[in-house]
Amino acid sequence: MEPTKKCSIISWLEEYWPVSTPFLAVYVTVLLVLFVLKENFALFLIWLQTPVYWVHQFEEYVYPGGFVEFFNRKVLGSKREDWPLTKTHALWINVPIIFVAFPLSAILAGLVDVSIGVWTAYFSILNALSHVGMFFKHGYNPGLVASALLNIPVSAYTVYYFATSYPLSLGTHVASFLVALAIQGTLMVWGLKFMKAKAEQSF
């Protein structure tokens, strides 16, 4: 009975995890404005990457949603909207990075050193640029509006702030960028190579 119970929980998460994003984004943003903004603006910017990205995920998977279907049909050229990229993949890509790694990095930025969280801004920019790139080839894609209006402006300002008003070393910026690039690059190689091959095998 236990495996069945576990599967039902995972299935529920696969279906409904994105629904939490607008509520979490509003709640966390309010807390940041009330308790972090005036006390530590640098840390505020690091923490802000998380609710901004939750808005991004809301557009991708809730309203208007349809990123999985878009990616399968338009990018991978699959005949099916639900394969090879699945809701399971969406869960295990998005939750570990944005629900775990982003907040954990912000916590460590506050407890250890603010530089630990800078990679999140670089990742937000790189991922947003991938949506912009898809726009030029495929038109609107879920996540594009948030990328253009939130991810890129907020994250670019964060990088600018840490390069000017709260200057960090060049090595910190390079390391942060490389971490972000490694994560985004892995996702793109997996999506555009491995998943593309699986889609082609269905023909």
TrEMBL record:
UniProt-recorded name of the protein: HXXEE domain-containing protein
Residues spanning the membrane: 16-37, 90-110, 116-136, 143-162, 174-192
Domain of life: Archaea
Record Pfam families: HXXEE
InterPro entries: HXXEE
Lineage start: Archaea, Methanobacteriati, Methanobacteriota, Thermococci, Thermococcales
Coiled coil: none
UniProt keyword terms in alphabetical order: Membrane, Transmembrane, Transmembrane helix
Entry keyword annotation includes Transmembrane: yes
